[in-house]
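Dear colleagues,

For the upcoming journal club I promised to circulate an example of a predicted protein-ligand complex. I picked one with S-adenosylmethionine because it came up in last month's discussion. The inputs are reproduced below in full, followed by the predicted structure.
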Amino acid sequence: MGLYGRSVEPITRDLWAKQDQHEGDRWRLFAAIGEVIGATRVLYPGSFVDLAPSFVWPSVTYVDSDRRAKRFYDDVDGVGEIIAEHDPVTSEPEAVFIAADYTTDLGLEDESFDLLISLYAGFVSEHCTRYLRVGGTLLVNPSHGDVGMASIDKSYELSGVVTSRTGTYRVHQDNLDSYLEPKKPVELSTDLLHKSGRGVPYTKPAFAYLFTRVR
Ligand SMILES: C[S@@+](CC[C@H](N)C(=O)[O-])C[C@H]1O[C@@H](n2cnc3c(N)ncnc32)[C@H](O)[C@@H]1O
């Protein structure tokens, strides 16, 4: 039994231990972002078992097509216990899981989320921006090319960058003009990004980027 009288299945604990092998790393990332953006409803397509957004935001919808992720979130008590161990913002955080391919219709209301998370999971912004409200924020890292995709999407404007130094994350919202400058001249397009499946190197790289949905 855990602190709050709920038990965690061993497989759930094991998956979380692997996910959290750099202990608290994602928690620190999301906490830094939570300090600068106000969000209540968060959507995380391609989340796998990265539960850390639930330590920071009260309502998070996770989406993944991997069976292990379904198994993990199916352990509702276990997931609730792990969240409870991390000093969450509310006593009854909502962590919902949708077992689905995020390129398909997720059955969610359009423009109903304040924050969309895209980390190491492909072109999340391309398929899931519809669920983000205008004025909401996309958090995206460059590894799978989704930063490039957001940078050419007229729905978005760069509104912050996240830097990482020895496990500490900082969000910068000023002097953003020097970011997103490709190292080599390149005509970024959806086709090019789909073909390469990864981003372009930038002269001034950042760990992750924040874009505001402007339309
Ligand atoms: C490398 S993991 C990253 C997990 C998590 N975002 C993180 O940063 O720790 C990528 C995850 O995205 C999921 N994924 C990739 N494409 C997907 C899709 N089209 N629909 C649903 N899940 C997808 C995979 O199943 C996998 O769990």
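Two points we might discuss: Residues 10-213 form a domain with the Rossmann fold fold (CATH 3.40.50.150). The mean pLDDT is 95.

See you all on Thursday,
B. R.
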